[in-house]
Design brief:
mainly beta, six-stranded antiparallel beta sheet, disordered C terminus
């Protein structure tokens, strides 16, 4: 995991692991790290399980795809939100530390146990809740990079995620039907 990101709000803090869950180290500031344990293709996915979510303040756990190495943020983020921040699900782009919202909605009620999944497939970006598509948009600005996590919470204990996983999207092979002995092929 690599830390050391900055954006238009300043330096991001690190994430911490507490009881096998990941959370921010500082309240009311982005905590960002990217994963370097697996080489990813340009078409990639990541997912986490919402382990803790309180209703006491603003919070926004986010998955990152095609993200830059530490420094000024660049890449895609897939977020869930709560607490008066204007969205419950959002896809956005960081470019040179400046955020641009690409798609958002404000009707999905995220709860503990929900799985947030993000996919970057060519220029198509998808956000899923429990394998159900919530948002989809297209963008061609960021072509490759790392996966990771950003968490913002009004208090450190407001949000925790668990079960981070990441991988490459692969094409689904055509179905090959078996041949019967003696049949024409």
């Amino acid at each position: 995991w690599d830390a050391g990101y900055t954006d238009q709000g300043g330096a991001n803090t690190n994430l911490q692991i507490v009881g096998n869950r990941v959370r921010a180290t500082t309240a009311s500031r982005d905590a960002t790290e990217t994963y370097t344990g697996v080489a990813l293709s340009n078409n990639q996915w990541a997912q986490v399980t919402v382990a803790t979510v309180t209703r006491t303040g603003a919070m926004a756990p986010r998955l990152l795809l095609r993200f830059s190495a530490p420094g000024t943020k660049a890449g895609y983020e897939f977020a869930l939100g709560r607490g008066g921040i204007g969205f419950t699900s959002r896809i956005g782009r960081w470019n040179a530390g400046v955020f641009t919202q690409l798609a958002a909605e404000n009707s999905t009620a995220w709860v503990v146990g929900d799985v947030l999944r993000a996919e970057a497939d060519g220029t198509t970006l998808r956000l899923y809740r429990n394998n159900g598509l919530v948002l989809v948009t297209t963008d061609a600005v960021i072509a490759s990079g790392r996966a990771g996590i950003t968490i913002y919470a009004a208090t450190i204990a407001d949000v925790e995620v668990d079960d981070f996983s990441v991988g490459n999207l692969t094409a689904v092979p055509d179905t090959v039907l078996p041949t019967m002995p003696g049949s024409l092929t």
